[in-house]
């Protein structure tokens, strides 16, 4: 079943089940929005949604491995850029503004961001399995206490956060609904302990004192319908719930100066790792497969068979790329499984190679790698497409069209209030001119040592891209592509920062925005048909390559710098 082509799950079920059928669902595993949408679809056929008290898969899962106990860690302000106290203060102002007295957080990256903690409970995402509830006067985290060290406990308690067991969120949601949560004795004990520890008055005031002095007579509870699970919503009075996007979604997307600086530094180190990888791969492709290499356009020369024992696969080379990244400062792991794809596999947008079935590298086919890493000071995501043999005229034309779209979006200037839906077309126009396109969005936000895909904004043809305008200090990727089924795939991706634009005029006093590239790795010039680039595009390419060469030089050795110098030589007249 293909999303967008086949009927949605709820529509299919409603059409294929008999009238008055009951559809059981684990309410912890679907959002409020999904549950309500399904209820509406089923009601048209006199069907109903039935929350189950137990997960039926869990009931039959024999020998299920126990949950891992991964330690929670404190994310220092030197990387986070803002204190928990400041974040809670801003959040509580928003609660008052929306006439609410409490809010439930179930999105793991929001809990991590708000409380300045990180973890390793989800592969590739430095988050913790936890819930959070914040009221006008109190803050709670629901987490397996075995994961909480003394250091983390001190960090949380000093910021007025009550640590509760993970499973207690259900009963506390009920207390929140009846306005009894703030009166729970454990919360009072936590506040008393905070005072006993003589936390600096500034923190104490901003977290507890100031807000305890305020009376909040509002009766609404805030829940994000897209991220909050239906099970917790069911504990609340639906008439007193504000169903609205979480206030942390936008707050988290608007990076502070420390986060922006960290992201820039992380991308420089990451770019150095990518260049080191390309240098290594270029040599290996020539030595093992007789490829003409990264720079020359010649047919490969077949090597002696004994060298085939050294063959390179999509997995073995991606492991090497991870090794280069792992040598960099603040490296904590990959930000998603590397998409390392050769030839026809590159045409599969979200291809995931497996050691047992992956392809061997081929000097006569395009190679696409989409990869990223988690560093303490930032998260990265980059895609480059290369050819180590002789690319066809068609492959060059397609690569150049993708590059033109990539440049067009990255160079855009646009008024405040512009959303990603309006900008998406810029990356597609060069492809549309040749009757080409791609079936994925063009850009997504990036976390700051958090999820590699972050909203609420995005650049896409999808309707939800209209919901949130791009704003200064947001991050977003620029990643157009083209995929020819059974043949090859091309994608180019950089991370951009949205910034204020210095325009000659300011029509309507709206203010204008532009983008700043923070990803640094060369584009393969032998894949570019320079006749298809405008003088302005050639100037941009040469300028980007010059910056790339200069900014990465301190992180590379003599051989690597010589390779990069050649890869970034000016092109065109």
TrEMBL record:
* Domain (Peptidase M24 C-terminal) ranges: 511-571
| E.C. numbers | 3.4.11.9
For this entry, the protein name equals: Xaa-Pro aminopeptidase
Organism, as annotated: Glycine max
Q: Name one GO cellular component term.
A: cytoplasm
| Domain Peptidase M24: start-end pairs | 263-500
Q: What SUPFAM superfamilies has UniProt attached to this entry? A: Creatinase/aminopeptidase (SSF55920)
* Catalysed reactions, as listed in the record: Release of any N-terminal amino acid, including proline, that is linked to proline, even from a dipeptide or tripeptide
Keyword field contains Protease: yes
Q: Name one GO molecular function term.
A: metal ion binding
Q: Where are the transmembrane segments?
A: none
Q: Which UniProt keywords apply?
A: Aminopeptidase, Hydrolase, Manganese, Metal-binding, Metalloprotease, Protease
Record carries keyword Manganese:
yes
Q: What is stated as this protein's family in its record?
A: Belongs to the peptidase M24B family.
Which leading EC class covers this enzyme?
hydrolase
